Amino acid sequence: MEDFNPFDNLLCILLGISFTVWFTLLLVFIIVPAIFGVSFGIRQLYMKTLLKIFEWATHRIERGAKDNNHLLYKPYSNGDGSNRDLDHASEFEMSDIFYFCRQGVESIMDDEVTKRFSAEELESWNLLTRSNYNFQHISLRLTVLWGLGVVIRYGFLLPLRVTLAFTGVGLLVVLTSIIGFLPNGRMKNFLSEQVHLMCYRICVRALTAIITYHDSENKPKNGGICVANHTSPIDVIILASDGCYAMVGQIHGGLMGVIQKSMVKACPHIWFERSEVKDRHLVAKRLSDHVEDKTKLPILIFPEGTCINNTSVMMFKKGSFEIGSTVYPVAIKYDPRFGDAFWNSSQFGMVNYLLRMMSSWAIVCSVWYLPPMTREEGEDAVQFANRVKAAIARQGGLVDLLWDGGLKRGKVKDTFKEEQQKLYSKMLVGTQEDRSRS
Amino acid sequence: MGSTNSTLSKIPNVEELMQETGFTPAHIVRLYDRFEALDKEKTGHLRPQDFGAINRLAMNPIGDRIIGAFFSPGQETVDFHSFVRILAHFRPADKKRPKDPSMPEPVNSRTSKLKFAFQLYDQDKDGKISRAELLQVLRSMLEMQVTEEQLESIADRTIQEADLDKDDAISFEEFRKSLEKVNIDHKMSIRFLR
Fold first, then answer.
1. Please, which residues bridge with residue A268 across strands?
2. From first to last of its 438 residues, what are the pLDDT tens digits of chain A?
3. Nearest residue to A179 via CA among A56, A274, A262
4. A positions 100-159 inside 8 Å of B (CB)
5. Do the Cβ atoms of B62 and A104 come within 8 Å?
6. C-alpha dihedral sign at B73, B75, B76, B79
């Protein structure tokens, strides 16, 4: 009996110390900067280190593949790489159809935007088996590195991130409820903004999201609508950690519902009951009422819809562009080298998806704030929407977004088909003219 | 990967399919995942609309023709086996295979690839690409970018060069001959590996 006591004590002391150290580190390096919006630059350093490791891993795979004569899966890029096929075509040939045919079949097999990498970039393996199609046992060192990666990600990063996530969400709920008791006025707005920003920043660190903001002078202002391309549920957190927005969405039950209800106490967000979502006029009216009140925050809308409820998507699409206020487009682009941020909603549920996000290395993305746009004379809502979409796509380098649905399919088809046809004809018509001159 | 085996066991006659198409189990699983993703209503078949939902395909000037290639005449749905068989045309050719005349032509041989492409031109399946059919394809690929006269002159020149028996149409043999210098395997193959 006596033997156990010293060990017990020792164990308790050790545990106590490590917990204290842990929490202090957490507080100092993550939570405090989040509150004040400053950064130690730790994440940037982390990112650079990871990139070096990935480069090494990629070289090993390529070397290994060459030695073993395996075919490597090179993710293709359309627009950059495959146009080279047509560069040799100076005149129409029967074989030119192969170019379109192959493109078409490639998109049947796989058309997710994630699989696009630039033609110049080597396929880089980020030590996550989920994103590697070539994983075979190439070398011991590589496997060990991968194993180490797994241990770090699941043993250290994941618990850390989950803790942060709970902290962030918990603080959000508690603080916004408290602020709800204050009388309406400037103080309340100020505090609510600070609280929202702080909690979102904690969430950003919970995902280890390394975000670069460009052109912040174009940030959305009150009375406007902020429109962004939607690629993952995390988009909200990324945008909301840099500015204050009024969210729009359907009220859910459970944890989401609690968060939504408490958020709305601090500042006016627009939440719809399930029944109201179907009423387009009601939706449009509430949105325009909000927008007309210049004291209220700009509305954040993803015309492609949130990943939560697809029926709501249809409503918002036309609605947001019909309202007639200034639209502030925002382009978000994820760097695929660090982790696959795209949510295949038919494959994973939300929780599964979040776990995947939290167990990848980091989420690196860029946000561009584009200059505001308004609907012009003689332009209908759909054309305006297309124009905004084109501006976002151009900025983010995202040529074919999964952006469809409510917009008239015919129009979208023609516009993009035309681009394809233009590219192809440039080569042919040029030579035709030369021929006629000679 | 344990999941490979469980997915494979869901597919009937999968051994035969692999034999016929030359796909490895990993390929089949990947294609099966894709098939399921496209088959949103889980009917086990794909209809033209399911293909139409692929945005990049909708943008493709000959997207409709490619979709048509999956459906045999009179059929309105495509099951997984037919889906895989068509996609097998795009496997890179097996360079090491010995030429065995007694075995049926492999589905990813040069000839089969050419036949697939020929089919895209020859919509009425009469075995010849008529001038009108050629014009139709040119129109889809070029539409607003060139005038009708330019389209016609391109069509004329192409037929002139390829049509050897002067019947104003291009038969499969003439098609094959006109493409003898083209690296079909490179143009009509999609390299993929799981």
1. none
2. 555 677 788 888 888 888 888 778 777 777 777 777 777 777 788 888 888 887 777 777 767 666 655 444 444 333 333 333 444 444 666 777 887 888 788 888 775 432 432 222 334 555 555 545 445 556 677 778 778 888 888 887 888 888 888 888 888 888 888 888 888 888 888 888 888 888 888 888 888 888 888 888 888 888 888 888 776 778 888 898 888 888 887 787 777 788 888 888 888 888 888 777 677 778 778 888 888 888 888 888 887 654 422 222 223 355 667 777 888 988 887 776 666 666 655 556 677 888 888 888 888 888 989 999 888 887 777 778 777 877 776 776 654 333 333 333 333 445 556 666 666 666 555 444 444 443
3. A262
4. 100-111, 133-134
5. yes
6. negative
Please choose, from the candidates A118, A113, A126, the residue with its C-alpha nearest in 3D space to the C-alpha of residue A58: A126
Question: Which DSSP category does A95 fall into?
Answer: T
Question: Cβ contacts (< 8 Å) between B175 and chain A: which residues?
Answer: 94
The answer to whether A418 faces chain B, any CB pair under 8 Å, is: yes
DSSP string, B20-71: HH---HHHHHHHHHHHHHH-TT--SSB-HHHHHT-HHHHHSTTHHHHHHHHS
Closest CA to A106 of A81, A140, A141: A81
Hey, is A330 helix, strand or coil? strand
DSSP-derived 3-state class of residue A406: coil
Residue A277's alpha-carbon distances to A136, A250, A417, in angstroms, are 49, 7, 34
Which conformational region is residue B19 in: left (phi greater than 0), alpha (psi within -120 to 50 degrees), or beta? alpha
* Rounded Cα–Cα distance for residues A314 and A325 (Å): 19
- In this structure, are residues A368 and A330 in contact, taking their beta carbons and an 8 Å threshold? yes
Q: Are A337 and A51 in contact (CB under 8 A)?
A: yes
The pTM score is 0.54
Q: Do B60 and A96 touch (CB under 8 A)?
A: no
For strand A327-335 and strand A363-369, is the pairing parallel, antiparallel, or unpaired?
antiparallel
On chain A, the residues whose CB falls within 8 A of the CB of B137 are 97
Q: What are phi and psi of A229, to 5 degrees?
A: -80, 145
- Residue A370 · residue A391 · CB < 8 Å: yes
* ipTM value for the complex: 0.88
Q: With beta carbons less than 8 A apart as the criterion, state whether B17 and B28 touch.
A: yes
Cα-Cα-Cα-Cα dihedral sign, residues A255, A261, A265, A268:
positive
